[in-house]
Amino acid sequence: MRSAYLYVVVLSVWGLHPAGARILTVGPGRTFQIPSEAAAFAGPGDTIRILPGRYVDCAVWSVDDLTIEGAGPGAVIAEKVCRNQALFVIAGRDVTIRNLTFTGARDRVHNGAGIRAAGADLTIQNSRFIDNEEGILAGANPDSTITIGGSTFEGNGNCISACAHGVYVGAIALLRVEHCEFLSQHVGHHIKSRAARTEILDNTIHDGPAGTASYLLDLPDGGNILIRGNDFEKGPGAQNRVAVAIGEEKGPPRNKTERIDILDNYFRSDFGHPSLFVLNCTRLAPRLEGNSFAGVVTPLGSACPAG
User: Fold this and answer.
1) Is 145 in contact with 169 (CB distance < 8 Å)?
2) What are phi and psi of 7, to 5 degrees?
3) Per-chain mean pLDDT for the chain
4) What is the pLDDT of residue 253?
5) Which backbone phi and psi does 9 adopt, to 5 degrees?
6) Which residues have C-beta within 8 Å of that of residue 141, sequence separation ≥ 6?
7) pLDDT for 246-269, tens place per residue?
8) pLDDT in the model for residue 20
9) What's the CA gap between 186 and 158, in Å, rounded?
């Protein structure tokens, strides 16, 4: 009965056909008290504004052209996952998410994500991913672009079953990560991308004293790559000596690799042993220019797994 009641209220409040673009506000005392209630009524083009507060809730967003945003600081989505996948499962296309915090995602196979990108063309802005098993997880979709900007990833990851990461995307067209901060990853990698093109621009990616990550960046299928203007740090608890790994999985890289540009980055190694900035296992020599280093660092190596 509550769902039928909400449907009537929504139409009476906005006076619009369900297909019309609306602003749906989520919060205590509002028509939609939790995000999942808004997700059940959202239509293409709608904007969902989530008021500050902690929402122990999950939602599946199935329609296209949504904007889902925190209406001020402190809008937190926590703990509960949908479809045994994520706090927010984004099944629609052309969705923008901004100004939200995602924390505490856990599932029964230890792969619970803050956001599961199950649709295409997702944009994430000014959001925080804290203490999830996986920060953002995206499956394969060769037509999809995922852009992440101005966001923070801290304390994500595990390797209880398969490893989980700060950001992990499958075979998509493009992953662009810019002006973000990655801190204290728990094993796994800060960013793992199987995209045909990966752009990592002007980010801070640090293990810090408590981080235990494997690679800072893992690009196992190669592809066209631009890594520019980042501040990298490998910490004393890191799982291995490599900062950036390209095409290192056994067998030839799956993506066509025509250009690898690694430019104007800073890498500091606090690992306590000699570190390797880039492990390149593709057949293409990368362009390394303008990078600077602190600690015992070899800029480039190619001692890759056989196969």
Assistant:
1) no
2) -60, -45
3) 93
4) 79
5) -60, -45
6) 119, 120, 170, 171, 172
7) 999 877 778 999 999 999 999 999
8) 65
9) 5
Lookup: tokens for 293? 């280093």
Report the pLDDT averaged over residues 181-206. 98
Q: What average pLDDT does this structure show over 74-96?
A: 97
- At position 140, the amino acid (one-letter code) is A
In this structure, the chain runs to a length of 307
Grade residue 8 by pLDDT with cuts at 50, 70 and 90.
very low
- The predicted pLDDT at position 251 comes to 74
